[in-house]
């Protein structure tokens, strides 16, 4: 199990990303628009950098929904390989069979 504080911090980051997504997208559109004057683009760049760092999507860490483990994470299943194996061995994931030979 991961530390509860790490899992909660990641949840806060996800909420913050959702809260600031539209504002960040609008500022990035202004920055990338070459037709706008450079002063306006620079002002938008300063406004973007003034936003909280945790509102950036790249700050989110993929974590297992079951255990909170940050590594060996399957995006499609939203869980780690260890949690997948345990749930599969217990028969809680339909269609998943442990192979043996």
UniProtKB/TrEMBL annotation:
Biological processes, Gene Ontology terms: translation
Lineage top rank: taxon: Bacteria
UniProt keywords (A-Z) are: Ribonucleoprotein, Ribosomal protein, RNA-binding, rRNA-binding
* Entries under Pfam families matching the protein: Ribosomal_S14 (PF00253)
An example GO CC term for this entry is: cytoplasm
Q: Which InterPro entries match?
A: Ribosomal_uS14, Ribosomal_uS14_bac/plastid, Ribosomal_uS14_CS
- Kindly list any coiled-coil regions of this protein: none
A single GO molecular function term of this UniProt record = structural constituent of ribosome
Q: How does it assemble?
A: Part of the 30S ribosomal subunit. Contacts proteins S3 and S10.
Q: What does this protein do?
A: Binds 16S rRNA, required for the assembly of 30S particles and may also be responsible for determining the conformation of the 16S rRNA at the A site.
Instruction: Spell out the family assignment given in the record's similarity comment.
Output: Belongs to the universal ribosomal protein uS14 family.
Per its record, how is this protein called by name? Small ribosomal subunit protein uS14
Q: Which organism is it from?
A: Nitratireductor basaltis
**Lineage, opening ranks:** Bacteria, Pseudomonadati, Pseudomonadota, Alphaproteobacteria, Hyphomicrobiales
